[in-house]
Amino acid sequence: MPSQTDDGEVADADEDRPTVTTHESVKDRTVFTEDGNQEGWIATDLTVDLRR
User: Fold this and answer.
1) Over the stretch 26-45, which tens digit does the pLDDT of each residue have?
2) Whole-angstrom distance, CA of residue 23 vs CA of residue 34
3) 40 contacts 48 by C-beta, under 8 angstroms
4) Where exactly are the structural domains of the chain?
């Protein structure tokens, strides 16, 4: 779904979403990183597979 930017332009939904990558640092430990955000990350011992 398109969204409107502060200057009134319509942006694609994909442009609004950051690229998130997962890394498995050790068995059963997943780290999520956001492209362009070197200081932000989330680590977890539990992840689930999404069904689409």
Assistant:
1) 888 888 888 888 888 888 88
2) 11
3) no
4) 18-52
